[in-house]
Amino acid sequence: MTTAAPRGFGVPWPELNDGILYKDVVPSSDHETTLIQFYSSKYGNSAPVQGWLQRIQNGQVPLLQKNRTSVGYLSSLVTCHNVGFAGLEVVYHRLPWKEPGAPHFLGILYEDDNMIALNKPSGLQVLPGGLFQQRTVLSQLQWRDSKQSTLLSSQEPQPVPVHRLGRGTSGILLCAKTKIAKSRLSIYFADGTSLVGGKRNTTKEPSSVRKISKIYRALVNGLVDEDEVIITEPIGVIKYPGVAKGLYVASPSGKPALSKVKVLERNVQGNCSLVQVEIQSGRPHQIRIHLSFIGHPLLGDPLYVSGGKPGCFDSQSVDEGFAQDGGYCRPQHAVPGDCGYFLHAHQLLLSHPVTDEVIKITAPLPSILQSQGEA
User: pTM (2 decimals)?
Assistant: First the structure.
């Protein structure tokens, strides 16, 4: 059954988000730690030491509480020991800010009582992170759910994405609306990756075992010689300035990954190829990494170049300067969330998490990713 409907939802973004409150309880082992030391060590990826000093001096860490009683404002050099209590609660208020521009409308490709498949536009982040804390798919799902909820509504959790698409990637994003759907869909995605990793003892082919398969469209640099290519290069993590948890790259010591590439069309004049990619594992940025690994990075990709590595990787360190809100300045080199490439989650084939019915979902192709016969 193929389901696609020209309908959707989305609320325009407010000019400023709501900011964020971070609450922590100072452990007794940190009783001699100053406030600046506490935050700069626990949240070192959020801001440099001088940035945290600015935040504290601005009154963005106004409360120290115990038993809901305010102790008051603290200097950045005051220690928890000086205050005289272990187990104090500290609250950091990240002030509201204007997030970078992002689309807000989400098309609905399929929906029932258990799940919803969205057509995510390029430029919209799926989950909160970095500068995007409100302008995300998750926020739009929560706002839609709050409008539809009533006092008689069930105790089921709010709809949530069960996998991710890069901010610059468009197309099908699958979200669960019930606990059982979330659990089973998460297992489907995890099973595909574990099969590639050889963790399952099975004599069946992976394609006959998997409960879900994903097919993407992409436009890549250069003319791919072979009509079909299977890429099995492992994907690992390296340290990279401006990316706190490290950058995913092609690495012989990384985790197993498998992508099947089929050339749909070659544009000799434009020196690019239109390809279809089926991924049988779900490593972060897998398609971008694998295509660049074989010498054909996505057209317009600001980060990955031939070899499956970043184009601007060197020994430069993170800029210790800080922005207006105290956080790190935006890196001058490319980071994973940057857009500009052409990658679209086109088709999804899965067994329904409750009924086990086979469902095929298709997201309409952007014009630039259509072959001449499809245009």
Answer: 0.85
